[in-house]
Amino acid sequence: MDIVTAQEMYERDQAAAEAGLAGTMLMENAGRAAAYDLVKHIQKSDRIIVWIGAGSNGGDGFVIARTLLNLGYTAEAVQVVPDEKIKGDAAVHKQIFQASGHTVKKWTDVEDAEGYLLRADVSIDAMLGIGVQGDLREPYKQIVQHCNEASLLRLAVDLPTGVPADEGVEEFTAYKADYTSVIEAPKLSAFLQHTQPWYGQWSVVEIGIPSQVSPAVRRSMWTVEDVKRTLPSRDDHSHKGSHGKGLVIGGSLLMPGSAAMTSRAALRSGAGLIAIATEEGAVPSISPYVQEATFVERETMELSAYDGVAAGMGIGRGADARALVHHVVTHTKGPLLIDADGLYVLKDFLGKLEKREEPTILTPHPGEFAHLTGRSIKDVLLSPFSLAEAFARRYGVYLVLKGPSTIITAPDGEQRVDVTGNSGLAKGGSGDALAGILLTMLMQSESMLDGLSSGCVLHGHTADRVVQQGRSKVDLLATDVIEGLPGTFRTLSSSIT
Ligand SMILES: NC(=O)C1=CN([C@@H]2O[C@H](COP(=O)(O)OP(=O)(O)OC[C@H]3O[C@@H](n4cnc5c(N)ncnc54)[C@H](O)[C@@H]3O)[C@@H](O)[C@H]2O)[C@@H](O)CC1
Ligand SMILES: Nc1ncnc2c1ncn2[C@@H]1O[C@H](COP(=O)(O)OP(=O)(O)O)[C@@H](O)[C@H]1O
Ligand SMILES: [K+]
């Protein structure tokens, strides 16, 4: 499913119009689709108020109110702006609403809002959508404030009023939705840490824009269904060499667990062979947890003997670590993933990545990405899509920017978003497990972007499954996720069980 900016959404609208789908038709589709989606959250006995704003989001509101009334719900349509502001397609739908025998109520002052809210169980926000610019003006601001304070169910259409569609906007006032029925495609703000909570839960309704005429967007969600579709199959005649021979360069005397978890996660994800290059003194602490792995000495490791290398977890941030990562970046000829401490020390010679001919994969969380880019974490969280794209293009790398919504960017700028996972993963070790899964995926997948995207979903989806099946978000450990992988593989593909 594509993820769009406001501009890209307007371009779709335009393409649909050129294909003959008039704006009024699209608005009818949008309103009806949203109404049928929203009623899943409404009881027949609920009293509903539909707030209608000045633009096309308000137009959707007239269609929604008419559909709800037709279905036998008790709904009031409240236009929050003067009549002259209702124009174009929205005016057509207002006309149809009235011609259907319904009355348009008006919001005139703040007491009105309180009165309406006192009588309602459910509020549907069809005030503003992707057209919002800057902070809310009156009367929207007051109405939003009253709605947010009232004890009722808050639903929204397309976007909660006031939430910007795009990234980069820090300050805004917005309607706090419990659920949002998103029109046609999710907007960037549905995935950002500071805007996503305003949506509540959300899902997307299809409104009839022919996908063949929609301008291509190189940004989409990657889901469990996509993993099922693209997961590498395990050939009956395969041998261990067929599934990838990987090297994990990680761990140290004080941080042995990281290398153990990355290696174990790689093996649990199907890697054929895993070798570990760690500090000699750490070997006895690591080997009991991954009996299947072999060990190689860091001084003599043969970097070109592997189908994939993952480096950096638990190596520390001192001069030795820096020299190690420098050596690895210079001499590894195959695909190379760098994580954790490796990213920290990489900063001084990032330029070297541009010269690599085989894929480089960097897997920072926002703090590590801020360090790599010299930006603040706040900036990273405000504009992760554009910063990730610029960085991936500049250094020619695959960038996995981790978080509740993980953004995977290819060197050509194509982006995927993984929304699986839960706050149980916000715990040391989760990133190490992910690095191991990704190491296997990068060795086995025909498409690097598909493989990395699937690796992120395998990780998050497994955490979700394990939490549903006995663990909680409080006690979940990275090792639980690793040991949950077999269950995930069993549910994903009958050909591998
Ligand atoms: N493909 C599409 O683009 C479709 C869009 N539809 C709906 O149309 C919406 C977009 O319509 P519009 O472009 O009219 O945008 P909006 O419905 O968001 O409204 C824009 C209006 O709000 C006013 N406004 C902007 N910022 C404001 C602020 N800070 N305070 C107060 N008023 C402000 C503007 O002056 C303008 O009148 C979508 O969100 C969706 O709900 C659907 O009807 C059908 C298809
Ligand atoms: N609240 C959350 N919801 C979903 N996934 C999360 C959440 N917090 C963290 N994660 C995931 O957990 C992993 C954490 O990685 P990282 O920050 O590198 O952890 P570590 O410090 O353990 O290496 C990432 O895959 C990230 O997407
Ligand atoms: K809205």
Written overview of the protein:
This protein has 2 domains: about 5-215, 3-Layer(aba) Sandwich (Rossmann fold); about 225-495, Ribokinase (UDP-N-acetylmuramoyl-L-alanine:D-glutamate ligase). The mean pLDDT is about 95. About 40% of the residues lie in helices and about 15% in strands. The strands form 2 sheets. Strands 8-17-16-15-14-13-12-9-10-11 form a 10-stranded mixed sheet, sandwiched between helices. The chain has a 7-stranded parallel sheet with strand order 3-2-1-4-5-6-7. It contains 18 helices and 17 strands. The radius of gyration is 26 Å and the shape is elongated. It starts with 5 loop residues before the first helix and ends in a 5-residue tail after the last helix. Strand 15 and strand 16 (about 405-410) form a beta hairpin. It has helices at about 5-20, 25-40, 55-70, 90-100, 110-120, 140-150, 195-200, 225-230, 255-270, 285, 320-330, 340-345, 365-375, 375-380, 385-395, 430-445, 450-470, 480-490, and strands at about 45-50, 75-80, 105, 120-125, 155, 180-185, 200-205, 220, 245-250, 275, 295, 310, 335-340, 360, 400, 405-410, 415-420. Helix 8 (about 225-230) packs across helix 17 (about 450-470), helix 9 (about 255-270) packs parallel to helix 18 and helix 17 crosses helix 18 (about 480-490). The chain has about 500 residues and is an alpha/beta fold. The longest helix is centred in the last third of the chain and has 21 residues, at about 450-470. The structure holds ligand NAX, adenosine-5'-diphosphate and potassium ion (K).
